[in-house]
Design goal:
The chain has 25 helices and 10 strands. It has 706 residues and is of the alpha+beta class. Strands 1-2-3-5-4 form a 5-stranded antiparallel sheet, with helices on both faces. The chain has a 3-stranded antiparallel sheet with strand order 6-8-9, covered by helices on one side. Strands 7-10 form a two-stranded antiparallel ribbon. The longest helix is centred in the C-terminal third of the chain and has 69 residues. The two termini are 89 Å apart.
C-alpha cells in the first residue's frame, strides 16, 4: 500500500474569520497514520484525544492514555530533515538538565517515528499552568525560564542528516528589510490617498523609516560582527515563538514546550520579542517591567555589556509598527479603510514612551561586564565541534534513506549520453567526428573497466579502479598472500581479460554500426548526385557549375564517404519540374472525376423528373375523363328537357374543355423534353410562373408552364 503523504489540509483566505473548530480537526488519513505510529511504541493506548492542530501547516497534538500513564503524541509539521534538527535539540537539552519533556524511544530505539513524510514524537504528558500576566512576577518567571533554556542549548550540534536552521548572521538583512518595507508603506499610502488611514501613515512613516536606518547603522558599529564570529554552538538556539503559552509552570519550575521551530541565533532575541510584545499589550513602555524582565533573564543566563547593547539596538527597531501595519500589503484598500487607523494610533501612542525608556535602560550598561570579542573570536574557531556530552548514533538518528541511482542505472545513463554524443558528431567534419568517437569509445571502455572493478569488495580496489582501470586489479591482486592470493590474482586477470574482450566487442560493434550508417548515408547521397539531368528534363545548374563538374561529383560520390559543402550542390530543377507535371496531372484527373460525378447527378435528376411527369400526366387524363363524362350526362339531361340552348352551351363547354385538355396533354408530354420539374393540374386558369426545382441550382435548364 502506498504511503499517504501528510500536507496542510486547510487554509484561511485573507481576513476570513477563523472557524470555531479550526484547530480541532484532522483528516481521516492523518488519524489512521497516528494509529500506526502508536503501534511502533511499547505501550497500550486506551484513548486518544486531539488537543490542537495546525491545518494550515499540517501538524497536530494528541493526549493519549496509556498503560504507562498519560502521554503526548505530536505530529511535527516541518519536513523530516528540519524536524530532526529540533528533535535532536530536545534530546540534547534534556541531557543538559533543562525542564523540557523527554522523548520516549520507539521499539526500534529511535526517539521518533518517520511516517507519512513527517516525524512523530511521543513524550510524557506534563501538567502545566501558564504564568500570571497581571503582575511583574509572572513575567520574571517567564524570563528566568527562558534564560535557563538558552543556557542549556549552548554547544548543540545537530545529528547527521538534519537541516541546519540559523538566523545568527541575518540581523543586518532583517533591519534592511524593515527599512525597505516601511518605505513601501509610504508609497502604498500615496497610492491610496482617499483611504482613511493614508494621511496618518504619511505623517509618521518617515520617522519610523529613520528609526530602522539608524538601528542598522548602530548594529554595524556595535560588537555584533565580532560576536557572530564566535560561531553558532557558542551562542546556542532561540525558541522563536516563546511566550505565555510555550513557557508554563510545572514540576520544579518553568517548562519550555513546542521546540519544533528552534534556530541558531543570539539568545536574547527571544527576550527582545517577549519585552516588546508585552509593552505593546500594556500600551506603554514601562521601565520597571523592562528592567525586571531583563534582570530575571540575566540571573539565569548572564549578559555581557556587548550583548546588552545589541539587545537595546534590537528594541529600537520599529518592530511593532512593521508587524501591525504590514497587513496593508495583502488587502490595502480594505485594511486602510477599516483597521489601519485604530492600530496606527495605538502604536504611535505606545511609542511615545519608547525613546525615554530606552534612553534610561542605556544608562544601565555599566552593570554588565564587558567581553573582548576580538580576542575571543581570534582564539575560537567558529566551527561545529560535536559536544562531549552528546554523541549521535547514526543508526538511531538516521532518517529513511532516499532512493539512490544504482550502478546499472548509472551505466545505462552513461551509455545513453555516449550514444547521443556519437549521433551528434556525425554532423561534424570527418576528422573531428572520428576523434570524438574514439574518445567516446575510450570512455565506454573505461566505464566497462570501472564496472568490472566495482565487483571488488575492498574500498582500495574501488578507488584504484576509477583511476587506473585494469592496472588497479593487477596491483590489488599482488596484495594477497598464499593460495588465496594466487586464486584472487587468477580471477582478477581472467576478469580483466574478459573486460578487455567485452570492451573490444563493444568497440567493434560501435564501429560496425557507425560504418553501416555511413555507408547508408553515402549510398543515399550518391544516388542523389548521379541523377541524369537529360532524363529528368531540361537541367538548370548553379552559377559556375558545368556538366563536367556534375559528372565529376557523381564519380567522387562512389569513392568518398564525405564531401565538402561545395560538393554538396545538386541540380534539383528537373525533379521539381517533374513533380510539377505530376501535380498538374493529378489536378486534371481530379477535375475530370468531379465533372463526371456532376453529370451523373444531373442524369439521375432528369430520370426522376421524367417519372414524376408521367405520373402527373396519367392523373390529369383520369381527371379529364371524369369531367367529360359528367358534362355529357348534363347534356343528355338538358336535351330531354328540350332546352336546346342549354344543350348547345353544354356542347360548347365540352368542346372548350376538350381543347384545353389536349393542350395540357401536349404540355405534359413536351415537359419531358424540356426537363420540367412540376406540371400543374388541368385548370381554366394556368400559372405563368416558373416552377421551383432544386435542379435549377445545379444548371438544369427548365421553364415554367405558360
Amino acid at each position: 500500500m502506498e504511503q499517504f503523504l501528510i500536507t496542510p489540509w486547510d487554509t484561511r483566505i485573507g481576513s476570513e474569520p477563523t472557524p470555531l473548530d479550526w484547530d480541532l480537526t484532522v483528516p481521516p488519513e492523518v488519524d489512521a497514520i497516528a494509529e500506526q505510529v502508536i503501534k511502533q511504541y511499547d505501550m497500550t493506548v486506551t484513548s486518544r484525544t486531539l488537543i490542537t492542530s495546525k491545518p494550515d501547516k499540517g501538524g497536530a497534538i494528541w493526549r493519549i492514555e496509556t498503560d504507562k500513564g498519560p502521554r503526548s503524541l505530536k505530529l511535527l509539521h516541518r519536513n523530516p530533515e528540519r524536524s530532526l534538527f529540533s528533535v535532536g535539540l530536545q534530546e540534547y537539552v534534556v541531557r543538559q538538565g533543562a525542564r523540557v519533556p523527554a522523548l520516549i524511544p520507539a521499539k526500534d530505539g529511535k526517539l521518533f517515528v518517520e511516517m507519512g513524510g513527517k516525524l512523530w514524537i511521543v513524550t510524557d504528558w506534563i501538567d502545566l499552568t501558564p504564568a500570571t500576566k497581571v503582575d511583574l512576577i509572572g513575567a520574571q518567571e517567564l524570563c528566568y525560564g527562558l534564560g535557563e533554556f538558552h543556557r542549556h542549548t549552548k554547544g548543540y550540534v545537530p545529528p547527521f542528516g538534519a537541516k541546519n536552521s540559523s538566523r545568527l548572521y541575518r540581523w543586518p538583512n532583517y533591519y534592511q528589510k524593515i527599512a525597505k518595507k516601511i518605505g513601501w508603506m509610504r508609497e502604498m499610502a500615496k497610492a491610496y490617498t482617499d483611504t482613511v488611514a493614508s494621511p496618518s501613515i504619511l505623517a509618521v512613516v518617515d520617522q519610523y523609516e529613520q528609526q530602522a536606518v539608524e538601528a542598522l547603522n548602530r548594529l554595524n558599529a556595535s560588537a555584533y560582527p565580532r560576536m557572530v564570529a564566535m560561531g553558532e554552538p557558542h551562542w546556542g538556539l532561540v525558541h522563536q515563538d516563546y511566550g505565555w503559552s510555550n513557557g508554563q509552570n510545572g514540576p520544579g519550575g518553568l517548562w519550555v514546550i513546542d521546540l519544533d521551530g528552534v534556530s541558531y541565533d543570539l539568545p536574547f532575541r527571544d527576550l527582545r520579542k517577549l519585552i516588546t510584545s508585552t509593552m505593546d499589550d500594556m500600551g506603554v513602555w514601562d521601565l520597571t517591567w523592562m528592567r525586571g524582565m531583563i534582570d530575571a533573564y540575566h540571573q539565569a543566563n548572564p549578559l555581557d555589556a556587548e550583548s546588552y547593547e545589541v539587545l537595546l539596538i534590537d528594541m529600537a527597531v520599529p518592530n511593532e509598527f512593521y508587524k501591525h501595519l504590514k497587513e496593508m500589503f495583502f488587502d490595502p484598500l480594505t485594511f486602510l479603510n477599516t483597521e489601519a487607523e485604530d492600530i496606527l494610533q495605538r502604536v504611535v501612542a505606545t511609542d511615545q514612551s519608547k525613546a525615554q525608556a530606552l534612553a534610561e535602560l542605556a544608562a544601565d550598561k555599566g552593570k554588565y561586564k564587558a567581553s573582548n570579542y576580538e580576542q575571543l573570536a581570534a582564539a575560537v574557531e567558529p566551527q561545529r565541534v560535536p559536544s562531549e556530552s552528546s554523541k549521535w548514533d547514526e543508526t538511531s538518528w538516521g532518517l529513511q534513506p532516499q532512493k539512490a541511482a544504482t550502478s546499472e542505472e548509472t551505466s545505462v545513463s552513461r551509455e545513453k549520453r555516449t550514444e547521443k554524443v556519437t549521433v551528434k558528431k556525425k554532423k561534424l567534419s570527418k576528422s573531428v567526428a572520428d576523434d570524438r568517437i574514439i574518445a567516446a569509445d575510450a570512455d565506454a571502455k573505461g566505464s566497462l573497466a570501472n564496472s568490472g572493478a566495482s565487483d571488488n569488495k575492498t574500498s582500495k580496489g574501488q578507488k584504484d579502479a576509477k583511476s587506473s582501470g585494469h592496472e588497479a586489479n593487477e596491483s590489488n591482486s599482488i596484495a594477497y598472500k598464499g593460495k588465496s592470493a594466487k586464486n584472487a590474482k587468477a580471477e582478477k586477470v581472467a576478469k580483466s581479460v574478459k573486460d578487455e574482450k567485452s570492451a573490444k566487442e563493444a568497440k567493434a560493434a560501435t564501429e560496425a554500426k557507425t560504418a553501416k550508417d555511413e555507408s547508408k548515408s553515402t549510398a543515399r547521397k550518391a544516388k542523389l548526385v548521379t541523377i541524369d539531368p537529360q532524363k529528368a528534363g531540361k537541367s538548370k545548374t548553379t552559377a559556375g557549375s558545368t556538366d563536367q563538374q556534375v559528372n565529376h561529383y557523381s564519380e567522387e560520390s562512389t569513392t568518398k564517404t564525405r564531401r565538402t559543402s561545395s560538393q554538396n550542390v545538386i541540380d534539383l530543377a528537373p525533379h521539381l519540374a517533374k513533380q510539377t507535371s505530376v501535380k498538374k496531372k493529378a489536378v486534371r484527373k481530379k477535375t475530370t472525376s468531379a465533372r463526371t460525378s456532376t453529370a451523373r447527378k444531373k442524369t439521375t435528376t432528369l430520370a426522376q423528373i421524367k417519372q414524376e411527369a408521367q405520373k402527373k400526366r396519367k392523373n390529369a387524363s383520369a381527371k379529364l375523363t371524369t369531367y367529360q363524362q359528367r358534362k355529357a350526362k348534363q347534356t343528355k339531361q338538358a336535351a330531354k328537357e328540350g332546352n336546346k340552348s342549354t344543350a348547345k352551351q353544354a356542347a360548347n363547354s365540352v368542346r372548350r374543355t376538350t381543347t384545353s385538355g389536349n393542350k395540357t396533354n401536349q404540355a405534359a408530354s413536351s415537359s419531358i423534353k424540356r426537363t420540367f420539374t412540376k406540371v400543374a393540374a388541368p385548370s381554366r386558369k394556368m400559372s405563368k410562373q416558373a416552377a421551383y426545382s432544386s435542379s435549377a441550382k445545379k444548371g438544369v435548364k427548365s421553364r415554367g408552364v405558360r
